[in-house]
Amino acid sequence: MIIPRHRHEYGCCANECAPTAIAGSFTAFLLMKAIVYTKYGSPNVLELKETEKPVPNKNEVLIKVHATTVNRTDCATIRAKPFFMRIVTGAFKPKKKIPGTEFSGKIEAIACNGQVFLETNEARFLKNTGH
Questions:
Q1: Which of 6, 37, 50, 94 has the fewest CB atoms below 10 angstroms from its CB?
Q2: Which residues, 6 or more positions from 31, have their beta carbon under 8 angstroms from its beta carbon?
Q3: How would you label 92-109 residue by residue, b for 16+ Cβ within 10 Å and e otherwise?
Q4: C-alpha dihedral sign at 48, 52, 53, 55
Q5: What is the pLDDT of residues 44-101, one digit of tens each?
């Protein structure tokens, strides 16, 4: 799961980032397991699949999720109900294939000024994507 992070944490602009930089692109552990859905519907549309691990873009973090919940927002998102939610989630099929809004885990990488840094802090998150 990639979450945009607050700008300029760890003093990125002053090259004082706390984590250690990785040479080249972030290629460690290329696959991950995730619950995905490619169409709207009941919980039966959810599938456990191996998928490509995302690479964090500028000012984002990559989090290895250890625990998550299923809440009202997730249920409404996979069903696309009420119907007007499709304006945000995708008209005919989901824009984002991995559902979820609440989770906890470990930060694996931080992207800052075009470089990716390793990090191992544990954290809890609430993803606010507007839906």
A1: 6
A2: 50, 51, 52, 53
A3: eebeeeebbbebebebbb
A4: negative
A5: 999 999 999 888 888 888 888 888 888 898 999 999 988 988 998 999 999 999 998 8
CA pseudo-torsion sign 8, 107, 117, 27: negative
Please report, for residues 82, 86, 90, 97, the alpha-carbon distance to residue 56 in angstroms, rounded to integers and kept in the order given.
Answer: 31, 26, 22, 17
Q: Which two tokens stand for residue 38?
A: 């490619």
Q: What is the CATH number of domain 2-126?
A: 3.90.180.10
How many Cβ atoms sit within 10 Å of the Cβ of residue 131? 14
Please classify residue 62 by burial: count the beta carbons closer than 10 Å to its beta carbon, then call 0-12 exposed, 13-18 middle and 19+ buried: buried
Rounded to 5 degrees, φ, ψ at 83 are -55, -35
